[in-house]
Every structure is written in C-alpha cells, then in structure tokens.
C-alpha cells in the first residue's frame, strides 16, 4: 500500500514541474495548487491496491525547486494521508524520490493543464513502472485521456487503465491514519 501511496504522491507532485522552469517567484507560485488524478496504470497490478477515492493533491514548491505533495487516499476503507517530496535533478522534468529508488518524468499532453507522470523504480522490492494522467480540474477530458493511451502504447503498457473516484475529503466513518 505504501507503494501506491508513494506512486500517487510522486505522480501528482511532478505535474507542476512539467512547465518550463519559472523565471520569477510569481511563476513558481503559479505551479502550486490543486491537481486531480484522472487515470493511472502500473505494470505490477498484484503488488498494490487501487484507491477507492483520491482527494486533490496539493503541491507546494520548496526551496531549490523540489516539490512537496499532500493528498489523502481511501484504500480498503481506511483513509491514508500521504506526503511526498520529489527532489529536483539537474535534468529538466526529472525528479527522484525515496532516496533515489524511483525516477519520475513529466510529459505534457496536448491538452492545457494536463500532464503524464511516468515513474520507474523499485516498489515493494520489485522493479515497476507507473503512469498517471493529472489535470487542474476533476472533470474527465477525452482528448487528454487519448493522449495518455497513446503514451501508454508507446511505453508498452497493456494493462487496464484505472480512473479513481474523486472527493474533497475522506468519507465520514473511515479511519484516517498518516502515511510515513
């Protein structure tokens, strides 16, 4: 489950860096804010649990250009708060997470405010690949989803795409526990 939480966190955080490097503090602040997970896929279906609900990810730009992402996932009836740091690298659109165990790349789509987050690395002791489609609003966008499908075909994914339910908060009556 930590792998899924990490993957979701990584994917949403890196969305903001898909834009050109900011020229000023104002531009950097424009990268912060809410991002919605629209679709996701992994090549290790059996090693993670799909979230029943995902809240919008809040992204914050840190000193040096790294990013902090915060979100909540509902998995197996329990809400998990997730906070993740993506460490900026010297390569554009490339970030490291979990002590260098995962690499995250950001690909803009042809649709405004939609990005593909592609992650490779170790998850629960296995090598895995994940991809996520994220956007600024919670509404489905068929053009962005088609761009995502084309990206997945090019990367050799053949698993089913999963689109999680969106929510602003964890439902009442669910246990909420922080995820380290």
Automatic annotation (TrEMBL):
Pfam families per the UniProt record, alphabetical: Lipocalin
Region (Disordered): 159-180
Molecular function as annotated in GO: small molecule binding
GO cellular component, one term: extracellular space
Cited InterPro entries: Calycin, Lipocalin, Lipocln_cytosolic_FA-bd_dom, von_Ebner_gland
Position of the signal peptide: 1-18
Residue ranges of every copy of the Lipocalin/cytosolic fatty-acid binding domain listed in the record: 32-161
Protein name as it appears in the record: Major allergen Can f 1-like
């Amino acid at each position: 489950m930590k792998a899924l939480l990490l993957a979701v966190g990584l994917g949403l955080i890196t969305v903001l860096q898909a834009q050109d490097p900011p020229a000023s503090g104002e531009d950097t602040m424009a990268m912060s804010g809410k991002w919605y997970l629209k679709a996701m896929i992994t090549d290790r279906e059996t090693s993670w649990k799909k979230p029943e609900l995902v809240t919008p990810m809040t992204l914050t730009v840190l000193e040096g250009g790294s990013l902090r992402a915060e979100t909540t996932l509902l998995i197996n009836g329990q809400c998990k708060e997730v906070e993740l740091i993506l460490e900026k690298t010297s390569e554009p659109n490339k970030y490291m997470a979990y002590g260098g165990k995962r690499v995250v790349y950001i690909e803009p789509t042809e649709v405004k405010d939609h990005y593909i987050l592609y992650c490779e690395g170790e998850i629960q002791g296995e090598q895995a690949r994940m991809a996520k489609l994220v956007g600024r609003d919670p509404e489905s966008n068929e053009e962005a989803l088609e761009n995502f499908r084309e990206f997945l075909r090019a990367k050799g994914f053949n698993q089913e795409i999963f689109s999680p339910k969106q929510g602003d908060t964890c439902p009442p009556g669910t246990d909420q526990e922080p995820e380290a």
